[in-house]
Every structure is written in C-alpha cells, then in structure tokens.
Amino acid sequence: MIRCRTSTMVCILTVTLTFGAATAGCDNNEKAVPTVLPPVKSERTATPVISDSPRVEGLRLHVDQVGYLPESPKTLVVAADEPFAAMTVQVVAKGGDEPVWEGMLPAAKADENSGDWVARADFEALATDGAYEAVAGGNRSAPFLIGDDVFDDVWTKVARSYTAQRASFEQDDPFTGLKLLAGHKQDKEARLFFKDEGHPSVVDVSGGWYDAGDYGKYVPTAAITVGQLLAAFELDPITAAAPFLTERETAFWPAAPQAPHLLAEAKYELDWMLRMQRRDGAVYHKVSAMSFPAYILPAEDLQDRYVFGLSTFGTALFAGAAAMGARIFEPYDSAYAEKLLDRAMKAQAWLSEHPDAYFRFDEGQDTGSGPYSKPTDREERLWALAELFKTTGDGKYEAYILRDYADMLGKPPGTVSWNNAQLLGQWALATAEKKPSAVRDEAATAIAQAADVIVGRIGEDDYRSSLAANEYKWGSNQNALANAEVLLLANRLKPSKAYANGALEQLHYVLGRNAMGMSYITGVGSRYPLKVHHRISLMSGVKVPGLMVGGPNKFGGDQTLAKVIEQGAFPAKSYIDDESSYASNEYAIDYNAPLLFVLTEFRSQEAD
C-alpha cells in the first residue's frame, strides 16, 4: 500500500476506475485481488476524454462527511445532472490548495437509482491522519477526517440517543442540554385494552424507550434493538464499553455500578420488556394511547395509556433477547441474569404450548400507534431457541430446532428487523460454544451465502450502496446498515476483505456519500437532517444528535413525501428533510440498532 505521510507529499497514481469496481474476497491470510465487475447497464453514455476546463459547473463531490480509517478504501463519488468528461481529482488539506493526493476521475456514467451522472475515485493510498477536502473541476467536497478514531464521536452520539428516548425518566443531559420532566407516568397504571381472563386489567408498564418520533412503546422493536446492541457488546466488549452515561443515568442499577454503560442502557429497556410479560410467559404487544400525540413534550401527553395485543412472534422475540441478556449480564449482575433466563424459559414454555402462529388484534388498537403485526413467527422462534441453546448448552433446544426448523438452518437469512430475526438465530447457532452443535456449520454457511449476494450488489452500485431499486423503502437506511451487519457477522465466521470493506461502504453511505449528499444522522457531518419527525427534538428546542432517519423511500407513505415522488424523484432521492415526512425523516430505535452495531466494529479501541 502506498502511504502519504506528510501534508505536502503528492501521491500520483495511475488510476483506471470503472463503475462497479470492487475488492475481491480475502479468506484467512490470502492476498486480496482487485476485481472489476461489470458496470450498471445504461443506455446513456459520456465521452471518455479528459476535460481541459479548469472548472466544471454543477459537480457535487460526495464523501463520508465524518471520515475514513487510514487503512481502508476511501471512495469519492462525483455527481452531476449532466454528463461530464474525465478530469483530474485531488485531495487537499482542509482549507488548503496544495494536493496531497492526485488521481484521474473517469468520465461519468448514468446511475439508475439516483438519476445522476457519476464517477468514482478511490484515494486509499492517502493514509495520513488529518482533515481534508476533495477537489475536482474547481469544486470542493465537504471536509472529512482520516484517522483511527474518526467514528468514536459518532458512536457516542448514537449510543446516547437511546438515553434521550427513555420514558418515565427526568432528562437532564449535560452533553446536549436536554432537560425534560419524566413523561407518561400514567404507564405505571396502564389499562389492558382487552379482557384477559385470569390476568390483571391494570399493568405497570413504566420505563423503556419511546420507539420513534412519538411516544409508543413496542415489544418487537424493543427486542430486536436490544438483541443487536447486546450482539455488538458481545462481539466487541472493549470497544462497546465506552462511558457515555452520567451517574444519575445509571443510578437505577445499584447492583452493578461498574457495568458497561451500553449494558446499563440496554437494561433500561429490558426492565420494561419484563413488565410486559404475563405470569404464564406470554408477552403483550405494545403500549400507547388511543390517538397519536400532538406535537407536545412527553410530560404533556396526559392521554390514558393502554396495553394492546399479544403474539407468538413478539413473545419469541422477547425470549431471544432475554436469553441473550442472561448470558451477557451474568458477569455483572448474576441475580438479574438469572431473572432474565427464567423469564426467557417461561416465554419458551408458553410458545411450546402454543405451536401455531398467533397475533391478537382488537378493533381500535392501531388508532394511536403503529401495528407492527406479523402473521408468522418461525424466524423469531428460531432465534429464541438458538439463544437458549447458546446460553444454557441444553441439548433439548437444539433438538427442537432440528425437529421444527431444520429447513431454515441453511437458508440465507434476510436482514435483521423487527419482523425477521432469522440472522440472529443462525448467528447464535454458528457461535454456540457450550457443546458441539450439529447445526453450526450449516448456519455459518448460510450467513456467508447471504453476504456474498450483498457484496455483489455493492459492486454494481455507483454509490456503493447495497440497496436495490425496490429496497429504497420505509427505513432504507436501516436496511443498508442491516446488510452491513450481515457482512460483519460473515466476516467473523469467514474473514474476507470484501465483507469488511462492503460493510464500511454502507457506513460511508449513510454518513454522506449518497445521492442526497447528506449525513442521515443528526448532528453528524457537515449537512444532516434539521427537521426530524421527532417530538422531543421539535418541542424541547434541543436537536438531539445521533438520530438516524429512515431515508429515501420511493414508495411514499405521507403527504409530504408523496409530493416529492410526484415531482419525479428517483428512488435514492425520494427523501425530504421535513418534520411532517415520517415515511422518510423519522428516527426509530431499531434504525439506530444496526448503525450502532456497525460503528462498534469500526470504532477504535484506543478511545477509552
């Protein structure tokens, strides 16, 4: 690798870049081999000649507005509304003019998902720590950093975002200035929306995190979020142990004053999930009012609150997260870990007694909250059994898997979401250590197969996004990072530079190297959402940092976004920074979950 170690040294590279270039897989100690993949097919072409013009109007230079790791690929995307010829591209010190890296940008080609004419250059050879800008055709990019610690501050902001979502908690955040009275105290005596024979009609469901931009709380998103946060910690306990909570914010857990902060924050949500469980092991679905709240602060929302629904898939999600927590919390609070395992086993016992998928719905339960409904539950049952097997080593759980879910073991998983926990189940089986498992290799192979497909999609996209055209939908940013999650788990099982670099490309995508030219995370980068659909930010006057919005959504879902789409927005540009666009510009706890997972993988260990 060529390195630039001074700010005045120029790395002159002869770069032949094609659209769709990617780095091939690198298994174990094999050397990575550059591979050229075919370009995205397009009827539009541009003349491949070098421009003599010192300035090319209308160029947009898209970079990761946070930065790049020194040893990683560093891709710049140059975009315009019209074709442009090949030209010189440079990287300069921030605010400077002297190039520290120089290469050739090829002529533009059409990108189907954005409607842009784009060209790419990789300045991986520049590895010196510092602050930089890219320059092409007289146009400059947003500034960015190179360094081992470039993602550390983002990690902290994203981790702290969960603290800002705490219900039943008085906020006094010295980092952001957010001050809030405790909201929804009425959750301590929430009423059951339906008659549940043999069970209390009033339930204490206080605490937990608000799910998104309003004040509902949902078991499916809670469990899948906790599962990913715990997975991040389990994989990288050193990098995930950074302190980011105040003493007051950890005071609810006196039994473990030295526990890592990420576990303390996850426990705040797990405590609420435990309150959502019935005595027989089944788990209720959600907590909200009968109407979506107005644009008011949490403490001002005085509507009666209800506990709605019950499902097998939600109970299985609970069991998976609780069983996982039992394993990870044990070194810090064995009594709490024992409680989590007991509750997970009760949930699994109830599931065994109710083998058919069930989702309870009562008319009126969705008038003030999202449905989060799912008619099936196999992926979630697999996760629950896999985590119980990994935590306990009890062969009966593996036997249940082989009996009922053998067909899923070798099936490449989809991305992790509230309605698909298959990947987490396969990962738990692939890494179970308490006893040899007959399903370990099959699960590991399935994860690698899914990763290979994702790598192929990245190689075909001009912005290095893993999203196909039909995947620019509700929560597309989450989907891109969930793809990165697949790649990182596959990389743990079968090390490959293609997997690791592909995951990093998805992080670069959400941090600014995208068709909108913006970081999709509040308070991060040079240009980020300012009008997020997030009541706490809007009504407190404090723009909470670290909130990732849903992102481009070509299918719409709200009136504001519909107007953008009607005006002809391409899939990758079907987005608007407007508080009324909950279909593209709302934050959610499960959006941030794969983001935190990926950031943990690339965060520096030296930060603490």
The assembly state of the depicted protein chains is: single chain
Mean pLDDT, as a whole number?
Answer: 91
Poorly predicted ranges: 1-53
Beta-strand percentage?
5-15%
Counted beta strands: 20
Proportion in helices: 25-40%
Based on the coordinates given, report the CATH architecture of the largest domain.
Answer: Alpha/alpha barrel
How would you sum up the global shape? Answer: globular
Domain tally: 2
Distance between the termini: 29 Å
Q: Helices and strands: which structural class?
A: alpha+beta
Radius of gyration: 24 Å
Number of helices: 16
CATH C-level name of the largest domain: Mainly Alpha
What secondary-structure arrangement, pairings included, does this model have?
Layout: E1 11-12, E2 21-23, E3 34-36, E4 60-62, E5 67-68, E6 75-80, E7 87-93, E8 99-105, E9 109-110, E10 117-122, E11 130-136, E12 139-140, E13 144-146, H1 152-164, E14 171-172, E15 179-180, E16 190-192, E17 202-203, E18 217-218, H2 219-235, H3 247-250, H4 261-275, E19 284-288, E20 306-310, H5 312-329, H6 334-353, H7 378-392, H8 395-404, H9 406-409, H10 422-430, H11 440-460, H12 476-493, H13 497-510, H14 535-540, H15 559-566, H16 589-602
Helix pairs in contact: 1-16, 2-4, 2-5, 2-16, 5-6, 5-7, 6-7, 7-8, 7-10, 10-11, 11-12, 11-13, 12-13, 12-16
Question: Tags for this entry?
Answer:
2 domains, Immunoglobulin-like, single chain, alpha+beta, 5-stranded mixed β-sheet, disordered N terminus, 608 residues, Glycosyltransferase, globular, 20 strands
Describe the fold and architecture:
By secondary structure, this protein is an alpha+beta fold. The protein folds into two domains: 11-146, Immunoglobulins (Immunoglobulin-like), CATH 2.60.40.10; 152-522 and 586-607, Alpha/alpha barrel (Glycosyltransferase), CATH 1.50.10. 34% of the residues lie in helices and 12% in strands. It is built from 16 helices and 20 strands. It has helices at residues 152-164, 219-235, 247-250, 261-275, 312-329, 334-353, 378-392, 395-404, 406-409, 422-430, 440-460, 476-493, 497-510, 535-540, 559-566, 589-602; strands spanning 11-12, 21-23, 34-36, 60-62, 67-68, 75-80, 87-93, 99-105, 109-110, 117-122, 130-136, 139-140, 144-146, 171-172, 179-180, 190-192, 202-203, 217-218, 284-288, 306-310. Strands 1, 5, 7, 8, 11, 12 and 13 form a seven-stranded mixed beta sheet that branches. It has a five-stranded mixed beta sheet with strand order 17-16-20-19-18. A hairpin with a 6-residue loop joins strand 9 and strand 10. It is globular and about 80 Å long. Residues 1-53 have low confidence and may be disordered.
